[in-house]
Each structure stands twice: as C-alpha cells, then as structure tokens.
Amino acid sequence: MPVPYWLLSPSVIPLVVIVFIPMAFALYISLTGLNQNTIGDWTHAPFVGLKHYLDGLDPRGPLAPSFYTSIKASVVFSVMTTILILPIGVGAALLLSGQLRGRTFMRAVMLLPYIIPTFVNGILWRLVFMTNTGIADQIMGALHLGARDTFWLIGPRSLWALVLADVWASWPFIYLMALAALQTIPPDVHDAARIDGATPLRIFRLITLPLIAPTLGLGIALSTINHFNNFALPFVMFGPTPPDEVNVMPLNIYVNSFITFNLGLGAAMSVVALLIMLTPAVIYLRAARVGDTD
Amino acid sequence: MADIFQGKLTRRRFLEVAGMGAAATVAVPGFLDACAQSTTSSATGSPKPATLSLYVAKDTARPQAQAQLFAMIKAKFEQENPGSSFTYDTYASAAEETTKLETSAAAQEGPDIFEFGSTLVPTAYATGSFEVFTKDMWNHIGGKSIFFPPQLTMSGPSPDKLIAVPVSGNPWAMVHNKAMFQAAGINQVPTTWSDFIAAAKELTNGTDQWGTAMAPADGFDPWHKIWLFVTQLGGNLMDSTGKKGLLDSDASLEACAFWLDWMAKYKIAARQDATFKGADEVRAFATGKIGFSVMAGPGGIGTWDNSPVAGQYEYTLGPTIPYGMSSLPSGGKATQGFVSGQYYTLFKYSKNQELALNLLKVVVSPEIQYQYFNLRKQQPVVLETFTKYPELKQGNWAALYDAALKAYPTPFFPAWGPLEVELGKAINKIAGQIGISGSYTMSDLKAALTQVNQELQASLGA
C-alpha cells in the first residue's frame, strides 16, 4: 500500500510557505548585491556569491570588525540577560505558587513589565539612564555610589543599561514558565518530603528543581533566542548608531538592510544569526531528547 | 484540475501539485495587477475621480499644524477636483521612510505620492520607482521656473532627470542668544570659526552655561556638521564618481577633530552632550543654557517662541572661514549648509498620476506655500510666495532666506545614506570616549574613520 504522503500536506504546506520559502529567499538574497539600485527589479540583482559572508566573516574582511562586534554583543547580551532573569523568575514563581494573601492580584502585577510594549519600555529606560537628569544617575549620586554624570547610554556601561532594561521587561517569561511547571507538581510529593523532615532548601534542590527542570530548560532556550533577536529595545534606547557594546546583530542587520539599503549583506548576517541561534535550540532538543522514541 | 487529486499520490505527484500551486501564487497577483492597469482618465480628458494616498513625514513638533495644513490642502483639492480626495499616512523616522520606500519599490505597490527629505531623493531615484518629470508634467504644476532655484538641485541627477517636486525648504543658519551675548560683552557675530570659538569661550562658565551644544548621538547632526566643515575646507566626503568614500581623508579628519574639540579641547560644549540628539540641543537653547546653535534650521522657532528665550534669539549667517585661517582655503566654499527640504515624488506604479499632479499643483500654489510658513514654520519654495508675503524675508526669516541662497547641494549619490550612517558611527564612538574620559587621540579618530570608510567602501562595491 502506498504511503499517503498527501496527509502531511496540512502541516507541510504551511511549513513550506511560512518557514522554508522565506528562508530560501533570504539565503538567495544573501548571495546577491541587492541594494537601492536593484530593488526596483530585485529578481535581476547581480549574483555576488559568498562576497557578503567573506566580507563579514573573514577576519581580514572590511566588515569583519563590525560583524564580530555584533556577534559578541548579541551573545553577551542574551546570555547575561538569561542568567539574570532565571533566579528572579523562579524566585517569583516559588513565592506565588504557595498560599499567599492577594496571590491573584500579585500574579497579575508580576506580568506588567512583560505586557508593556517594548518601544515604551525602551523610551522609559532611555529616560532612566539619561546622563545627569536620569533617575539612575540621581539615585547613584544620592547614595554616593557614583557620579551624577555617569554615562549609561554610551561606552561600556551601555551594555549594563540594556541588560537591566531587558531583565526588567523579560523576567516574567521565566516566572510564567516556572509557575506553570510548579503547578504540575502534586502537593503530596512536597508533603511527604516535609514529613520526612526535609528542609525547604533540600526540598527545592532535590524535588522541585528536578521536576521543573525540563520546563525551565525550554524557558532558558526560548529566552536566549528571544534576547538574541531583540531589536526594538536596543533600537529605541540607542538608535541606529549604537555604541559597540550594544550593537547587537538585529540592529546591525536592520541598519544594513533598511537604512543603508545593503539588503544582500543584511540577509547574509541574518543567515549567520540563524546558525548561531540554532545552538541553544539544538542543545535544548538534545538535552530534552525530543524526538527520541523509547 | 480535479483529477490532480485523484489516483495515487506519490512524492513526484506531490511535488507537481505543489509546484503548480506555487506557480499560481506567483502568477495570479501579476495577472490581476495587469488587469487593474486600466486607463485613469475619463472620456472628457480630466482625471477619473479617485482617492489618492500620500506617505508624508510627520511634523512631530507641530502635529496639529500639519493636520490643519492638510485640511486646507484637501479643501482646495476637493474643490478643484470634484469627486476626488486624498488620504495621508505619516512616518516619524528615517527608518520608517526607508522601509516604506524599499517595500514599495520591491512590491511595485504603494502610495501615489511619497514625501522624501532632500538627501533621500538620490536613493529614491536609484530605485527607479519614481516618475521622471517631463516638461508637460512640470508645466502642469506651473513650470520649473516657479521654484526657488537651489531647491531643484536636489530633485534629480540632472535638469532633465528630475523626480522630486520641492514642497518646503529647511535652510541652515546660525542662531545665538542675544541676552547672553550682551551679558558677555560680545557685540559682533563671528564670521570665522576662530572667532566663534573665542566668543563661545566667553559665553561658557563650565557648569550650567555653555557656548554651544552638539548632538553627536543624533542620526543626522554628525554628517551635517562634518559636511559643512569639510566643504568649507575644500574637501569632499565622497569622490566625484560616488564610488569612493573619503571619510578618512585629511579634510574629513580635520573637520571631525574640529567639531569633537568643542567638547574635548575648547570645552565650549558640555561633555554630557555626548549623548545628545538634535532635540536635546534645541531644548538646551530654549532653556538659555547655550549661546550658539550652529546649523540650526527654522524648526526650532516654534519651540523657542514659547520658551524663556522668546524674543532673545537671532538667526544670522554662520562662520565660513575654517579654524585658524583668515580666508577660505583653495577649493573651500563659503557655504552655510546643504540644500535641504522636503520633496514630493510620484510613484511610477500609481494609477492616478494625472490626479496626483493636480494635487501637487495645489501644494505648490502660493497660498498653500504660505501656510507652510504660517502654520508649520517652514520655508516656502515657490518664488511668488516671497513677493506676495513680505514677512517671509523679514526678521529671522531674512537670515534664513540668505542662508538658503548660500546652500550647496550634497552630491546626488544613492550611497549618501550609507555615508551618513557610517560617519555617524565614527563620531558617536569618539564622542562617547570624550564623554567618559574627557579626551580622545587623533590616532583613535583616524582609526575610527578608516574603519567606517572601509565599511562604506564594502557597501559601495556591493
């Protein structure tokens, strides 16, 4: 009996249209010199082969400094943010998973940073970090932790400004994942451990954490990918000419594609970003053994 | 078609069906589009009534005035073109402007009329998506001769290849605070950059009052200033072919160093300015914290007339002699700024081009042009407006008019956009260094300019 492949079509066709065709298209554009001169007739953009990849990835290439700076900025930013939001999100979830007065209200309040549109968040944090007049400098000055004219939006501190802003906006994601996982743990397990005399820390380390680990793993992988792909926040906070420390890949891709009209280069950078982003995804899939049949 | 789904579906058959689907996806919109390319004129020769769509820059400083102006334009247009009207959508940033341009050019579908700033017109021209105005088209809206001549220099690469109709001007001049001048005993506006630095030092107390401000974090301000200084020095930011960046040339290095030294060496601008954008400089002038604002357009007037400096500021022509010199060097131009303003272009794929020309005719009528000045504080671009409304050449507007006459066009290269961004990156980097440490070295500046010039070159060679 022939295999009825057509039964796959409801999932294969959307997958092809939504994922594979745009990916193939991006790959094709990355091999062309598509720019302002050719966009009106983009199907005839000159084929330049691997030029954009070599310009960016070859250490002697003219775009290598900018390319590697962006890769480093994106990796550092996404890893730092994920590391910081993990304990905050899990801590908040543990706090609100138990019986607590006003728990429903608190659960709603915890989601507020996540609900605020990213561009509003960006403007808000830009104001917070304005030199001299921003709240950050005012607080640091009042507490004698630093000068009132500390620069947050330029230089090395700009990375911290971006990380802090993104931590504030994104920790509820881990909180939600952790809370959902905590609610699947039967209360009997914790009750039994308590009867056996286990301390709260021991219960968390040996029972709670292993049980929520798979969900947290997914949360970490998705969070890393989300931070890596965050465009709006750095764009609003720093604009199209950001300091090197926060010149993340999405921003660099956007500037190349939509401001300097070098769409071929922008597409090549997107392909490289995609390959980098496969790393946490593959690590998670292997760790979670997704696809294994036993 | 039905038999496609009958019988055994093999992998090969599946690919055939999917291929036909994909071909139909590509072909059908094109076919429908071709069908839609019908005549747009009625039998009488006047354009068929329709609703035009415009994509214009948002007046973020005076959105209500912009709405009021468009209401006036609409009333006049609807009166002259019964049954027709227009709608408009706005963009608030250069990023939105370029994104819309790209997507419309690639899809060959978009608004009937696009508004562009002068330096984006070359990019728009390069896309080949906008109508080159014929003599008949110019005559339809009143002829080329009705316009302030410098504005047409940014309408196209040559007089016979113009794609953009000027609608408003944005001349650059210098503005100073008269009260601060008086308090510091300065009674003459500087005409050389050496005098400017000396005067600005007199106005600076180093804490809450500064000679001037700068906005190196702005998307535009860095290249505005560097272009001015380089042009006065007799240099260029790009060679005459438009294929070679000159961001690391000696003139460029000197120009960048002079501007950055306002913070680092002469200390006439605060180090906090390292994070300033254009709006921050306008605000600093409005609050009386700075004495000069260099290369200021008329855009600040609305803010300053409603601030503590109302009645205390004056536009004049800015210095033209480079720092340390007593006259212009060889090749140097006594410019006040580049030809700047807003332009309307006709999208090539518009189905209502004749009607769109009727709308352009309304926009460049002296009455509507006057409202650009009256409501939006922008300089009109139609000559008759200046003779009909004398206030356009009085007071501060007299200096702005003179400055417009002394403006030079930027080269009509599509790669000017990338140049702006690359130069901004280098300036931003060194300004950040000055903000944090108070100083920079020429080798750092040279390295930054060499790096961005390499990036520009890679983009030009693409």
Number of beta strands of chain B: 11
Question: How would you sum up the global shape of chain B?
Answer: globular
Q: What's the structural domain tally of chain A?
A: 1
CATH superfamily of chain A: MetI-like
Task: Compute the separation of the termini of chain B in Å.
Answer: 45 Å
The largest contact between protein chains, plus residue counts on each side, is: A-B, 50 and 48 residues
Shape of chain A: flat
Tell me which CATH architecture of the largest domain in chain B applies here.
3-Layer(aba) Sandwich
Radius of gyration of chain A: 23 Å
Strand order of the largest sheet of chain B: 2-1-3-10-4
Work out the count of structural domains of chain B.
2
**Rg calc of chain B:** 25 Å
The biggest sheet of chain B amounts to: 5 strands, mixed
Order of helices and strands of chain B: HEHEHEHHHEEHHEHHHEHEEEHHHHEHH
Helix content of chain B: 40-55%
Supply the CATH architecture of chain A: Orthogonal Bundle
Briefly, what CATH class of chain A?
Mainly Alpha
Name of the CATH superfamily of the largest domain in chain B? Periplasmic binding protein-like II
Explain this structure.
The complex is a heterodimer of chains A (about 290) and B (about 450). Chain A is an all-alpha fold and about 290 residues long. Chain A has a single domain, classed as MetI-like fold (Orthogonal Bundle). In chain A, about 70% of the residues lie in helices and about 0% in strands. In chain A, helix 3 (about 65-95) runs parallel beside helix 8, helix 3 packs antiparallel against helix 10 (about 200-230) and helix 9 (about 185-195) packs antiparallel against helix 10 (about 200-230). The longest helix of chain A has about 35 residues, at about 65-95. The two termini of chain A are about 25 Å apart. The model of chain A has no long low-confidence stretch (mean pLDDT about 90). By secondary structure, chain B is α/β, with parallel strands linked by helices. Chain B folds into 2 domains: about 50-170 and about 340-410, D-Maltodextrin-Binding Protein, domain 2, CATH 3.40.190; about 175-340 and about 410-460, Periplasmic binding protein-like II (D-Maltodextrin-Binding Protein, domain 2), CATH 3.40.190.10. In chain B, helix 9 (about 220-235) packs across helix 10 (about 250-265). At the A-B interface, helix 1, helix 2, helix 12 and helix 13 of A face helix 1, helix 3, helix 4, helix 17 and helix 18 of B.
